[in-house]
Specification:
Blueprint: H1 16-24, H2 32-50, H3 55-58, H4 72-77
């Protein structure tokens, strides 16, 4: 994969469980938006695809807001 070196340092094919384990490793760095997407939708979609329930995703019409709660220290500073 050719990625923008300012955005992507490395790529790797992993399983769902491998990715969840990687998230727990403090020596690995992930962008906050990637973790947010994984936790809010990717793992759910992954289960549907692997479980043969992909048709359930076709009719999804919900718009998901990808917002993390603002840490209290940042909210207080605003």
């Amino acid at each position: 994969m050719d990625g923008n070196p300012n955005e992507v340092q490395a790529t790797k094919y992993v399983t769902e469980n491998q990715l969840k384990t990687m998230f727990k490793d403090d020596t690995l760095l992930f962008t906050p938006w990637f973790k947010l997407i994984c936790q809010s939708t990717l793992f759910e979609w992954w289960e549907s695809v692997v479980g043969g329930r992909m048709s359930s995703l076709k009719s999804e019409s919900t718009i998901r807001r990808m917002l993390e709660p603002v840490p209290q220290a940042l909210a207080d500073a605003a």
